[in-house]
Write a sequence for this structure.
């Protein structure tokens, strides 16, 4: 049975890229929401 | 397409399991857009009139059905396709979800362009709803298999993404509509096309990097407890056998009641806060309150699911029920004494437990029914969400309406609802109390395991535990 594999394993760069790919948009969205939420205290 | 086969997603040597949470987030952040669909409602009531609604424009109740149909098909598809998702593997499921999600947006763009609402019902509602169901369950069951030592934390991360998807989608959609709009055009169709394309790419990245662990894989340094906890099984239960256990239905009710208690106030938070504190919470402040609730809804998904790894799933739900009961009983008091801070804090904790209820349940199911069919079983459990989606808002809206028409001041119109919510949590507490270990007659036999494992065998090495 054919099996695809990572021959060299996961690199730190791949991890950083993967987490950055999802983390940066999420952080920006949360920041924007937080800014709007601050209106509750104004 | 061999690339999508389950056997071709088995991780090889050196694969780091921390690559899997971003893969799951790629899908959940995209389908979480559903929570932000309301940003299109007002613009879509002005597609013909542009500045204001024309007689032939769609109205809000008609548009409200788009989201309702999508959530309905989320529940249906996760229940119907759950077994297929488990046996076909996460990449096939995530690819299917990406196709359906993007396809739903493209079809909806056509519906907007030719002004046919039925095409949007089918596009975003039916096809997009199927993407929601398939995309919602597939990454989570994969994460549970990769993180047997911290299943709550792992699933909490993914389900947090579903809550967080709206934070990205909402400002992005508004910005895109502003770019595509003109004095003669609203720009919704173009926004749908761009969103569909972005989401397809994003979800495909997740489908490409996702992997499943080889059979028998364990994280480095992790030793499964020799003396298994009574409430954490090491056996698997077949998806349809789970339906025959009282545990499934007890957890179904626990989830349904916890979600009912949260979803009703989530939808009415803005109006409720303004009516309970007239003149003190303005519409602008109420919008801020709703934003803060969304953040706690998202954060609670990670916090409570991670906490459940330490205190246990059953105890986590006990906390939801007891703390929720106390807080719901406190809300009328905060209104009576005019404590805005008390009101806001109470609801922020309540809504964090609403999110936590969603994210802790996959690990609860894994404890009860094993990892093999946990995604499919969870798919069936999500019908509790559909039920709660009807009960929660109905309880809040209709009881408030009844009270107001019978002369109760608006500031006190929600008090009865709060006590009813507290009572629901008492029932949830009893259901949770009754959850015991699944009887061994429901466990899968070794020959059945071997038969099903034929689909998945083929691993050729041990990935890194990370």
């Amino acid at each position: 049975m054919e099996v695809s594999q990572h021959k060299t394993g996961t690199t730190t760069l791949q991890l950083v890229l993967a987490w950055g790919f999802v983390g940066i948009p999420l952080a920006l969205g949360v920041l924007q929401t937080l800014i709007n939420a601050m209106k509750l205290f104004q | 397409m061999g690339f999508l086969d389950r056997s071709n997603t088995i991780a090889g040597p050196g694969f780091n399991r921390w690559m899997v949470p971003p893969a799951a987030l790629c899908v959940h952040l995209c389908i979480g857009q559903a929570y932000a669909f309301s940003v299109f409602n007002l613009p879509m009531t002005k597609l013909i009139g542009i500045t204001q609604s024309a007689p032939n424009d769609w109205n809000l109740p008609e548009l409200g059905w788009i989201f309702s149909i999508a959530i309905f098909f989320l529940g249906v598809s996760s229940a119907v396709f759950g077994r297929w998702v488990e046996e076909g593997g996460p990449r096939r499921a995530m690819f299917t979800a990406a196709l359906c999600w993007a396809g739903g947006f493209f079809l909806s763009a056509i519906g907007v362009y030719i002004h046919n609402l039925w095409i949007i019902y089918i596009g975003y509602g039916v096809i997009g709803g199927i993407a929601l169901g398939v995309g919602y369950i597939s990454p989570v069951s994969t994460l549970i298999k990769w993180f047997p030592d911290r299943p709550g934390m792992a699933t909490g991360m993914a389900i947090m993404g579903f809550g967080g998807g709206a934070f990205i989608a909402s400002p992005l959609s508004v910005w895109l509509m502003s770019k595509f709009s003109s004095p003669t055009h609203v720009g919704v169709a173009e926004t749908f096309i761009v969103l569909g394309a972005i989401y397809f790419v994003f979800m495909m990245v997740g489908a490409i990097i996702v992997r499943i662990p080889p059979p028998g894989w364990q994280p480095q340094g992790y030793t499964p407890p020799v003396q298994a906890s009574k409430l954490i099984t090491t056996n698997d239960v077949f998806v349809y056998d789970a339906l025959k256990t009282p545990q499934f239905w007890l957890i179904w009710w626990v989830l349904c009641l916890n979600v009912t208690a949260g979803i009703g106030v989530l939808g009415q938070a803005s109006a409720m806060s303004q009516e309970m504190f007239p003149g003190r919470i303005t519409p602008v402040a109420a919008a801020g309150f709703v934003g803060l609730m969304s953040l706690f809804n998202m954060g609670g998904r990670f916090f409570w699911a991670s906490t459940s790894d330490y205190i246990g799933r059953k105890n986590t739900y006990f906390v939801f029920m007891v703390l929720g009961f106390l807080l719901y009983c406190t809300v009328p008091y905060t209104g009576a004494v005019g404590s805005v801070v008390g009101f806001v804090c109470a609801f922020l904790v309540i809504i964090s437990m609403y999110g936590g209820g969603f994210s802790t349940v996959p690990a609860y199911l894994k404890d009860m029914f094993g990892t093999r069919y946990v995604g499919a079983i969870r798919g069936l459990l999500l019908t509790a969400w559909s039920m709660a989606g009807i009960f929660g808002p109905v309880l809040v809206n209709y009881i408030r309406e009844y009270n107001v028409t019978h002369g109760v001041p608006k500031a006190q119109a929600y008090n009865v609802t709060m006590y009813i919510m507290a009572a629901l949590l008492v029932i949830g507490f009893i259901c949770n109390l009754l959850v015991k270990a699944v009887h061994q007659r429901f466990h899968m036999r070794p020959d059945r395991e071997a038969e099903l494992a034929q689909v998945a065998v083929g691993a050729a090495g041990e990935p890194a535990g990370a």
User: Anything to note?
Assistant: DSSP finds one helix and no strands in chain A. Confidence is low (pLDDT under 50) at residues 1-6 of chain A. Helices of chain A lie at 12-37.
